[in-house]
Every structure is written in structure tokens, then in C-alpha cells.
Amino acid sequence: MELSHASISPLHTAALRRRALSNALWYALLILIAAGMVLPFLWMFLTSFKGPNDVIFSVPPQLIPKDPTFANYVRVWNNLPLPNFFLNSIVVAGTTVIFNVLITSLAAYPFAKMKFRGRDAIFYGLLALYIVPVQLTYIPSYVLAVKVFHYYNHISALIFPSLANVFNIFLMRQAFKSVPDDLIDAGRVDGASELRIWWDILLPVVRPSLATVAIITFVNQWNDFLWPSLMLQSMDRKTLTVGLLALQGMFSSDFRGVAAGVTMTVIPILVFFVALQKYFVRGLTGAVKG
Amino acid sequence: MPRKSALTPYLFLAPALIAIAVFVLYPIFAVVYYSFTDFDISTPPVWVGLKNYQHLFSEPLFGQALLHSFIYLIATPILIILSIALAIIVNRKLPGINFFRGLYYIPAISGSIAVGIIWRWLFDAQGGLLNGVLMWLGAIKEPVQWLTEPALTLPIAISLTVWMGVGYYMMVFLAGLQNIPEDLYDAAMIDGCNSWQKHLHVSIPGLRPQITLVAVISSLAAIEVYNEILVLFGQLGGILNSGVTMVFYLWREAFRLNHAGYASAIAIVLLVITLGFSILNMRLLERGSESD
């Protein structure tokens, strides 16, 4: 016992040392990659505090401001309605999420749990529509916005075309399919209406899938750019992505200003992400399994 | 039972089907019609038959846009390889590994416009960090005009797509890796695989569903790329149209030059290409699920 312990020990420390070395190398690799992913953001962040006496370009590059100032933030804040950009993005993404989640999960219920004429035909028809590139719809949607719905230059132009989408119906259908029929039958025996069954029995059970759909929808709407840029003309009606491009145009030779503007928009997104990280990751993996 | 009326399922479907009919189905028919007309959005379309298509196939710029979109597909294999490598790297159980995963995800969540603006300034000839670093290292003597060199337009845009996408796809592959049973790796070790071969023979086949998914998503995104081009190279789409892709071309013709009829013909070609892609992808998906 004593002997074997003594003979294992040096081997054991050698293994430990090898492991420590390999971990150190692994961390070095992780930090190197992190530098590649984060350095551009860090550069942008630090530049946003550079004063007029700090150079933007130098050899070797100067990252840390020597003459730090908030003036760039003040300048951008005074020239662009950033609170409006944020508010518009939040309203568009939030409203879309609420309506889209309700409408697509409403539609998913009969596809998953009811038998009716034309069910498969309608479902496969929808799946076929899924492959239509969204950019194809922009010209007719533009005509509709101007001539039929009269919401050109208004944020509802961003909400209405996103009220329902095939992908979310598909995800919710998968979620409802995994709910046991007994639960629904129990509700039916109790005399609940189908609407009650959907709201009181099904939706609470599939809450993780609802969160997935909500997050995917929110992020897609938040980052959408081309359609909003076609619809929103007045400065105070722009969403964040469209407003950011306006910032880039307005401050085209003022990198300190651009840096301040981008920093102000990216930081809230990062905070939001850190707060909801768990759901983001689950949303992603959920989408893959669906 | 009166409440179980035959109408119920259709009532549940109605809101979604109406929205999709108005904003997807109707636009498809409308765009097919517009593609046979002279149309500038403000005045009513005028039937011109096949004129737009004839114009399309005799226009060198259309061929260029098509070529650029297909060149952009190179982003897909790069993304798959890099994000699998990244997923394997962050799959190691180390203290603080979640922190690193979070860091790698930052470009993916910041939004293509914010990230694109950062990228544009990184490559700026006068103020860019890239020229500063390269001159400091002695790799170049004069600042390089990265953004006005036509041959570099697509590579720079693709590098942005990859930088933004790699963290996102890493998460997808990481979830896949964590579903692979540990004993498959143990078996591979017993069979004498080193850690490289272990990933080649266990990880890659195990990630097959994720690889198919990422290939589908990222190749469709590549064919439909627009944001990266606009934010990096502005409304001209790069010097000598070097960054004009299918969607960029469609956007410019429809909404900058008011050639909505002609742009509709471009949209139809885009539809045909994505259709072809989807059929190809479905074949791959079917083959993927057969082996499961």
C-alpha cells in the first residue's frame, strides 16, 4: 500500500504538470482568439473617448486616449435622436414578438393536434413559401405600403409584414406535437373550448419553445436593416440599424463621433445579451433541433 | 358537441394565413407580373413582355452580380471549418470557459450595421487600425487603400461575414458536440486515435446535422448578402461595381434607379436560384437523416 503510493506519486505529478502545461497553452489560444474578436470593439470604445489632441492614426497605433473626453458623446447625442432610434427599435421588435408569437402558435395548434380537411396541403404549401427570399417581396410590399396601407415612413411598416412567418409556425408545431394528447383530451372532457385549451394547457407547457421563438424573432427584427431603410425616411422615425447608417453618413470624417455613436448602441445590446444569455443559447440549440 | 365545429381549425389558422397571403403569397404573384412590365413604383406598370429578361441576359453587370453572389459562397466552408474548430476549442472544461464563449459571441450579437461600421473603419486608409498595425510591424511601408481596391472588395466583405458569423455558428456546433456521447471518444482512444483523429472520426460525423443546417443557413445568407456591401462600400457597391451582388443589384435598380420592373426580373432569377439551392439542400438533409 505504502509502496504503491510512493511509486505512483511521481507519475501522478508528471501527469498533473503535463495537464497544467496543456491548460496554459489552451488559455493562451483562447486569449489569442479573444483578442481577434474583441480588439476591434475595444479600439472603437477607446477611440470614442479620444480628444482633439489624440491622434486616430499613428505608427505604432495609440489605443489609450491621452486627452480623454466625453465631448464625442455629447456631439453625437445633440446631432442624432438616439433615444428615438432606441425607442423605435424596442417598439418594433417588442410589438412584433408579441403578435408574432400569438399568431404563429395559434396557427401551429391545429397543424399539430387537429384533423381537418386540407391540413397537409396547407402545411406543405407554407413550407414551400419558406424558401422564398424575403428580398423578393420588397417591391410589392413597398407598393402596398405606399398605396394600400399608407404606413410608408411609419414604424408599423416594419411590424405588419412580420406578423406571421413560416419558420415560427413550424417550430411551434414541433413543440405542440410533443405535448401528450391526454392533456388536451382532459381539457376537452372538462368542457373547455379549443381556445381555452390552447391558452391554459398548451402554452404553459411549451414555454421554453415560446421563449425560443420570441428571442429569434426579437433579434431578427432588431437587426433587420434593408426593409426598414426603405420605409423609414424621417430621422426621428428610424430604428437603430437605419439610424446607425445615418450616423456613419453624417460623421463620415469624424471617427471619434462614429465611435461614440456605435459604442452607445452596442453596449445596451451587450447588457441585454448578458442578462438573457441562458435563453439565447437555448434559443439557438432549440432552433437546430426544431 | 357544438363547440367542436368544423370551422375551429381554420379560425386558428386565419390570422397567420391572412398575414402570409398578403405579405408573401401576393408579392410573389405581383413580382412575377411586374417582371413583365415597365414599372417605376409611382406610375402604373405597363406590359412590355419579355423585355426585362432580354435586358437582364444582355447586361454584363447582371452576370457580374451573379458571379459575385456565387463567389460569396466561399464564406460557407470557411465559416463551417472555423466555427467547428472554435467549438472544439471552447468545448474543453476549463474554469472561465463560459466567459470566453461569451466574448466570441460579441460580434454575432452586435448587429451587422454596428459591426460593419467598425470593420469599415478598421480598413480605413487614413485612420484604420489595420494599416497602423501593419506599418508598425513593418509589413507595409505606405498605408494601403483597402476599401478602394476592386480586387479586395469581396474578400473584405466576406471577412466581415465570417467574423460576424463564426461566434454564432460556434454555439450551434458546441450544442452538437455536447450531444455526442463521451464513450464514442473513449472507444476512439482505445482504437488508438490521437486527439486529431479523434475529432476527425468522432466529432465531424457526430456534427453532421449541424453542418447541414449551417451550410443551408449560411449559403442562403451568402446568396442574399446586402448589408455588408452597403455598410462597407456605400451606395455604389464598391469601385467598378466590384461588390455588387444579386440583392444589391436588385435594391439599386428598384429603389435607387426606379427600375422596379427590371428589378422584379432580377428577383425572379433570385427566386429560381434559391429554389435550386433548397432542392439541393433538401437532398442533403434527407441523406443526413437516413444515416441517423
Rg value of chain B: 24 Å
Total domain count of chain A: 2
Q: Flag low-confidence runs of chain A.
A: none
Mean pLDDT of chain A: 90
Task: Describe the protein.
- The complex is a heterodimer of chains A (290) and B (292).
- With 290 residues, chain A is mostly helical.
- Helix content of chain A is 74%, strand content 0%.
- The relative contact order of chain A is 0.12.
- With 292 residues, chain B is mainly α.
- The model of chain B has no long low-confidence stretch (mean pLDDT 91).
- In chain B, strand 1 and strand 2 form a beta hairpin.
- Chain B is globular and about 70 Å long.
- The interface between A and B is large, with 87 and 91 residues.
Spell out the key features of this protein.
heterodimer; A: 290 residues; mainly alpha; MetI-like fold; 2 domains; 14 helices; flat; B: 292 residues
Topology summary:
The complex is a heterodimer of chains A (290) and B (292).
Chain A: H1 2-47, H2 71-79, H3 82-113, H4 119-130, H5 138-148, H6 156-159, H7 166-177, H8 181-189, H9 194-205, H10 207-223, H11 226-231, H12 240-250, H13 255-275, H14 277-289
Helix pairs in contact in A: 1-13, 2-13, 3-7, 3-10, 3-12, 7-10, 8-9, 10-14, 12-13
Chain B: H1 8-34, E1 37-38, E2 46-47, H2 51-58, H3 60-72, H4 75-90, H5 97-109, H6 112-122, H7 129-136, H8 150-178, H9 182-190, H10 195-206, H11 208-223, H12 227-233, H13 246-256, H14 260-290
Antiparallel strand pairs in B: 1-2
